[in-house]
Design a protein that fits this description.
This protein has two domains: 137 residues, no CATH class; 96 residues, no CATH class. 17% of the residues lie in helices and 33% in strands. It has four helices and 17 strands. The radius of gyration is 23 Å and the shape is globular.
Length: 317
């Protein structure tokens, strides 16, 4: 983190006709399934709408719809952050480590004194390739509120002692985005009774997608990619994920084939697995990659994983 200025503190509390339709359905049922690398795995209905055939493609199309909704709700934001926007500098001391780690994860953080609610001047988010975008910066108080809201309900911590924030310092920190790593404005909060600092990205607008509720009895299917490598002017992507160590030519190995489901705003990558071997196979996951060819160049579109439709970081080769 690169400090830029300190915040004054204030007291705060965070607490068609039917016959034609039948013909079309019959034709679709007899047709060879669409799909494969670069395909959409969809069938054409009478009104020209592409409908997904299988569960993986339904998940992909649902993810594209949620992403479009998120962009509309963002008010024109041009940044999609990837992963957690809260971090820390340093390691919790032994006496308070267990409590403080759990409390932070649960969003149990309070302003012990006062934090400014005055928003700083506009700043920039700067990517490592030299591109940048102007952004509004949240105040220290609003950033702490966002930190608390992000953790609320995410962990059981009934007996935890809340963390008390002292001072807040405006800084610049490295954060993952759908376009790769970038430097962004962040607040750094001191914690009373500890040398550890808590950080939180302080950009006021970003594209945030809300995944569907998790159903443990009927979880989403497929393999989630973790990142992608590619450029805006290319149709080629290499996606990274966790899979089997060996190829399908070996016992307990697997081969992987990737395809893309695309819209004007985003790309969902589906990774299919073909494995060999049953029984006592190694359950440990290993880093694997797969190539996928898009129908059009990536451009400024986000790349989403298929399980929850969340964006992943796209890094230039």
């Amino acid at each position: 983190m690169t400090p830029t200025r300190r915040a004054r503190r204030r007291r705060t509390s965070v607490p068609m006709p039917i016959s034609l339709l039948a013909i079309l359905v019959a034709v679709a049922a007899c047709a060879t399934p669409a799909g494969g690398p670069g395909g959409s795995g969809s069938v054409l209905t009478g009104d020209g709408t592409q409908l997904p055939q299988d569960r993986l493609h339904r998940q992909a199309h649902d993810a594209l719809e949620r992403w479009a909704d998120a962009i509309r709700k963002s008010g024109g934001a041009s940044i999609a952050f990837v992963g957690d926007l809260t971090g820390q500098v340093g390691t919790w001391e032994g006496a308070v480590g267990e409590n403080n780690k759990a409390a932070l994860g649960a969003g149990l953080v309070e302003a012990g004194a006062t934090l400014s609610d005055n928003a700083p001047s506009r700043d920039k988010v700067r990517w490592l390739d030299g591109s940048e975008v102007d952004v509004n910066v949240l105040s220290a108080a609003d950033t702490l509120d966002a930190l608390v809201a992000a953790g609320a309900g995410s962990a059981a911590c009934q007996d935890c002692r809340p963390l008390a924030v002292g001072e807040a310092q405006l800084a610049t920190g490295l954060v993952d985005t759908s376009r790769g790593p970038a430097n962004a404005p962040a607040w750094v909060f001191s914690i009373e009774g500890s040398a550890v600092k808590i950080t939180r990205i302080a950009v006021d607008q970003s594209v945030t997608v809300d995944p569907p509720p998790w159903n443990a009895n009927d979880p989403p299917v497929g393999l989630s990619i973790e990142s992608a490598t590619g450029t805006n002017d290319s149709k080629k992507l290499v996606v990274s994920f966790i899979g089997k160590r060996d190829g399908a030519d070996k016992q307990c190995g697997a081969d992987y084939l990737a395809e893309a489901v695309e819209s004007d705003l985003a790309v969902v990558v589906i990774v299919r697995e073909t494995r060999t071997g049953t029984g006592a196979c190694d359950l440990v996951g290993y880093p694997r990659t797969a190539k996928v060819t898009l129908e059009s160049v990536l451009g400024t579109r986000a790349v989403l994983e298929v399980k929850q439709g969340l964006p992943v970081s796209v890094i230039a080769p």
